[in-house]
Amino acid sequence: MGLFLSTAFGFPTVLFTPLLIVVALYWVFAVVGATDSEVLDSVDDSGDAAGLSALMSRVGLGRVPVTVALSMLVCVAWFVSMLGSIVTSLLGTTSTPLLIALGAVVLLIAVVAAWAVTSGLVMSVQRFLPKRRGDSKHELVGRTCTIRIGEASEGFGQAEITTAGGAAISIPVRTTGGEVLPVGSTALIFEHSSEDDVFLVTHFDAALDPGQG
Fold it and tell me: 111 phi and psi, to 5 degrees?
């Protein structure tokens, strides 16, 4: 336990440990619906990525929400830094300049490894996601879905729906007229917006379901 704590709060791992704590707290809030996965995503007036979204796109990590990419970067960097720091500690050197130099090398390796692993994961996810026909999205109109990861509003929304094959998939949803749907609620998909590639949803009233007796 002592080795773990001394490594986690020693150079260079200490640079990533606070970030790892922030990441863990963020996902706890996301799970309980207090925030969403696109909180750091932004676009300019023309609809192009801006801010952190643009930066992530330039380094090849723009295919997923910024929070997801940053979380993966921090986790991998922290893990690699921990391993590197433990390995260097086994050398038993007490020379401060040498320890700083070794720490800098570990830091560089951790940053490069974090980018490489995260980039590979993002590309792999995109590569193996099933490619559906454009008109298949319209087949979901008229079906119900469950709101996931925070509230669904006019600006953000993620929902889960089960395909005809029985697979659960996540889809981007938006509401209209200022309606807000809480996490876990059932929504009715009434339109697909091809311009924004999102599904428009509204509260689902089970009393209007013709399948209910």
Answer: -65, -45
